[in-house]
Structure formats: structure tokens, C-alpha cells
Amino acid sequence: MCDVTNSLDLARTATEFLIDNLSENLPHGISLISTSGIDLAIQEGAEVIPCVDLGLISHPEHADDYADLIHVALDSIQTAVSRVTKLPWPRVGKSLEVVNAYSVVAGRSISSGYGTIDNPLLPLRPLPLPKNFG
Q: How much is the pTM?
């Protein structure tokens, strides 16, 4: 079983990973931030819109659980950005179709992003799995 400290470390790692990988791909004027180190929020000017607190849902005990946590975060970020911009995000050209998030275990890392694993629109760099996940 995953202890609370390890769980919070995983949430912090996931938060930093998502901020580092998505920040430059967000629409102009929107930032992805964390106010506590384990939560994600969208900031537009002075307005901060909460997305998800990974500390509340972060209790992954296996690699698939960790991939699920990343998927939930990606979905939450996508919803928040789309609500702020009033348009689907990320966008494929001028299309208004919604692109789904994906997050799967691929070897010793998590492959994630928007689109599909076979046809990624916005792939993120791989997130290495913690050593204690077999």
C-alpha cells in the first residue's frame, strides 16, 4: 500500500510535470499554476480557476493508478481551459471538435497527452514511473 507521504510526493511530481509540459501550449494569456504544490489551477489575469487537487485523489498504488491520476488531471485542465476560452482546447486547426486526453503505462514511464496514443495531437514527454511501481 502507498503511504500518505509517498502519495503526496506522487501528486507533487505529477503537478510539476503537467505545469512544465503544458504551460507553453496553453492559449495566450492563460497559465497553469499550483497554489499548494499538489493542486492545479488555470490563471487568466488575476482570476484563478481551480482544476483539480491531486492530493485529494492521489493514492496510486500501481503504475496504472498513476496513469489514471494523470488522465484525470489532463481532463480537468482541458475542461477549465475550454470554459475560460469558450472554445475546445487543444484545437486541431479551426476544428471545434473536442480532443480527448490519454495516459497509459508504456514500459517504465507514462505516455500521456491529448489525442490518442496512436495519433497524438499534443503529446507530453514521458513521465518516468517511481522505482517502487513494478
A: 0.90
